[in-house]
Amino acid sequence: MIRPDDLEHCREAIRHGSLSFHAASKLLPAKVRDPALALYAFCRLADDEVDEGAYQAGAVFRLQERLDAAYAGRPRNAPEDRAFAAIVADFEMPRALPEALLEGLAWDAAERRYDTLSGVRDYSARVAGAVGAMMCVLMRVRDPHALARACDLGVAMQLTNIARDVGEDARMGRIYLPLDWLRDAGIDPANFVRDPLPTPEVSRIVKRLLAEADRLYLRSEAGINLLPMQARTGIWAARLIYAGIGRSVRSHGYDSISMRARTSSAQKAGWLMQSCARAMGSAISPKSPVIYARPLEEVAFLVDAASHGHRTEGRPMTVLNMLAELRARDAGIGTGGHMT
User: Fold this and answer.
1) Higher-pLDDT residue of 265, 313
2) What does the alpha-carbon distance between residue 76 and residue 157 come to, in Å, rounded to a whole number?
3) Do residues 93 and 318 lie in contact, with contact meaning Cβ atoms separated by under 8 Å?
4) Which of 42, 161, 208, 318 is 20 to 30 A from 130 (CA-CA)?
5) pLDDT in tens, 186-225
6) Is 337 a member of any domain?
7) Phi, psi at 302, each rounded to 5°
8) Domain with 101 in it: what CATH number?
9) Rounded CA gap, 326 and 127, in Å?
């Protein structure tokens, strides 16, 4: 069980670090909300260490060590680590899921860029789809169809984040937009990160990315009906709040360079009310055939790992390979620069 003081620490971390999830989590039953807060606190800590640290590769190595310790039942003496170790033990969390998240963070540390939308979905599967799969595990849901739709929701949320943060990322030298979309629009990535401008071409790319997110939001809805009834309202809230961020980007003419899309407390309250109505309606709605849609190719390994409780073999690049590549680069052996 999660220690009460550790849980309170995690709750405060999410209250200040993830307003959207904190709002949605209020509608989850306590038996799901408490481990979910602990999970998100550990994921937020991991993301912040890699995103904000001066030595990103070192942060990834330390996170791998912390993951090893948690799964060995000897977590680091920190609230997030102790709470995460409790989740691992209580829910038999397949290790492939947090390792997928770690792999995505390693890609960030390597400043990886993505040639195609599939590559962006590969990244989104790791940093967000894996969290969706872990949330299902916390609800004791291992149905592969529900897991596939949870991964749809996670990827949609990450695509929304990417669309919102185009300017902020570019000013940090990062690009998460598909490079082939930029090339087709006549945009040179090197020039773009030096001087990101809200041109019509960039706005069309942001619009296109949000259209893909919307497609996945719609697919995800069919899976919510397979979740425990008490948890549906909270997941509907997360779906509506994050999609609302995309609508805010649209209201600014798809300009996510000169401004950052935000949602108000009043808007969040409205989406929370809508989520209650959607959840109640799901109790009498027939099962949608969309539930049986094949999982995205990029998330199939997550669905398999969560439904069967093991690491999927044959993935194109394992966490260990990625860490070895980072070590080689830091030692001056690798090629350096941006990976594509």
Assistant:
1) 265
2) 30
3) no
4) 208
5) 999 999 999 999 999 999 999 999 999 999 999 999 999 8
6) no
7) -70, -45
8) 1.10.600.10
9) 18
Measure the CA angle with vertex 191, ends 189 and 194; round to 5°. Answer: 110
Task: State both tokens at 233.
Answer: 């309202």
pTM listed for this prediction: 0.89
Q: Are 250 and 192 in contact (CB under 8 A)?
A: no
Question: 């082939």: which residue's tokens?
Answer: 180
The whole-angstrom separation of Cα 124 and Cα 298 is: 9
Q: How confident is the model at residue 47 (pLDDT cuts 50, 70, 90)?
A: confident
Q: Considering its fold, how many domains does the chain have in total?
A: 1
CA distances (Å), 207 to each of 166, 239, 246, 247, 289, in order? 12, 19, 9, 10, 28
pLDDT at position 334: 45
C-beta of residue 158 within 8 angstroms of C-beta of residue 124:
yes
Q: What is the sign of the dihedral through the CA atoms of 24, 14, 125 and 318?
A: negative
Rounded CA separation 81/312 (Å): 25
> Is 62 among the domain residues?
yes
Segments forming the whole domain that contains residue 288: 4-330
Please give the structure tokens belonging to residue 181. 């979309």
Report the alpha-carbon distance of residue 195 to residue 157 in Å, rounded. Answer: 27
CA 288 to chain centre: 25
141 belongs to a structural domain = yes
Q: What is the pLDDT of residues 100-114, one digit of tens each?
A: 999 999 999 888 999
Whether residue 56 is contained in a domain is answered as yes
Q: What is each CA distance from 13 to 23, 31, 45, in whole angstroms?
A: 13, 19, 9
